[in-house]
Amino acid sequence: MTKQPADDHMCKRCGHSAGEGCGCPRTARVDDRLEELAALRAGWLDGHGQVLTPLVIRTARDICLALRIHDTVLIAPTEEGGINLEWADRNGSHELEICPDLSTCLLTVADYEKGLK
Q1: 60 phi and psi, to 5 degrees?
Q2: Residue 50 near residue 42 (C-beta atoms within 8 A)
């Protein structure tokens, strides 16, 4: 009998196993970018820049899927070994930093002329 992955390891978009990337065309853009970041070596930023841990990378992927921002998110490494996610939606522009210890910081600049949705 084949063991089924737990629900928290399933792609929320396509239902496939989301272990290291489910291959879903809807998430391929995020998966490809995170693979690039996973390949960074220590010193990637002019001799500075920490390696990103698999847990930071997985957390970034999970957040992109949970917030359904995988189509529009910009993903960048931080010098300290975290990941910065940036996206915009009808409520404004957002920037979420995932630190190496998995703490997060969210900045939202809302468009108050349109009002919050």
Answers
A1: -60, -45
A2: yes
Residue 47 maps to a domain? yes
Asked whether the beta carbons of 82 and 100 are under 8 A apart, the reply is yes
Query: Is 117 part of a structural domain of the chain?
Result: no
pTM for this entry? 0.75
Domain that holds residue 43: 7-110
Domains contained in the chain, number: 1
Which tens digits make up the pLDDT trace of 9-58?
555 555 555 554 555 666 788 989 999 999 999 999 999 999 999 999 99
Angstrom CA distances, 38 to 29, 97, 110, stand at 14, 16, 32
